[in-house]
Predict the structure.
Amino acid sequence: MNKLDILDEREAAAKLSAAGATFAKVRDSLNAVIFGQEEVIEQTLVTLLAGGHGLLIGVPGLAKTKLVDTLGTVLGVDTSRVQFTPDLMPADITGSEVMEESASGERTFRFIRGPVFTQLLMADEINRASPRTQSALLQAMAERHVTVAGVRHDLPRLFHVLATQNPLEQEGTYPLPEAQLDRFLLQIDVGYPGLEAERRMLLATTIGEEKHAAAVCTPDDLLEAQALVRRLPVGEQVVDAILSLVRAARPDSNHDSDHDSGVKGMIAWGPGPRASQALMLAVRARALLDGRFAPSTDDVMALAGPVLRHRMALNFAARAEGATTAGVIARLCESLF
């Protein structure tokens, strides 16, 4: 190893430490405004640091929208919000062309950008729109550009979608297609806050002036941190854990594992290779957020649920017996780790 290599390693370590400290401050700022959702905040930041999109699922009133609003302020990014409704059209998201006539009488088409042209897009209650409108977001999430009237329009370099969703058992909702679900790096389940957290929230939001967050970093800081995440080393043990977990969650690959999870025959369809990629990036992002220079198998266990639960489904027999996707993932983790 030459002197330049040593210098590069030291420089990388300094950058990782600085990025970890910056996003620890981001997490603290969010926790000061959003009460009782520490795990949700962590998973949301992991999603952004990994360069992905997040799907937040929970009943109304759990501060999902406020979290995304506050996140835009703290990160200093441009934000846009789309309220998904049954009458929302695809052009309302991507934009449309309009005909303009100049003073000389010449007519030309001009493209008016939709709200998708932003750095952080909040798709509020995404499952209340029709499947046609939901699919309009798919190309943007997957390819980072939209095509209108045969013309390609690139999105900003920094582009993330944080979508909120009501549980499917509520009226007036449409299930997201599997192809679109797979584009979300993590499914973040938002639950009710604990008693003490709800007490603090109640007092902080109803007495005096409510506290608001301030900018902690810039979009460039986030882009640099995303680049650092991809440079974090991953040990062979962690790579093997990721592959074992994802492959064990497939109905036709349970025999690949030497561990008996007891879930063979319960899975209708399982996660594809994109789940392995998502988990690899997510564990690196969690390590950086915690100020560590490499992920561990603990990170794999912590993020197994958010990465896998929207990428697999149980068959009818398993559901009839009361099995849940979360329970199956937990059993897989117990058998592997």
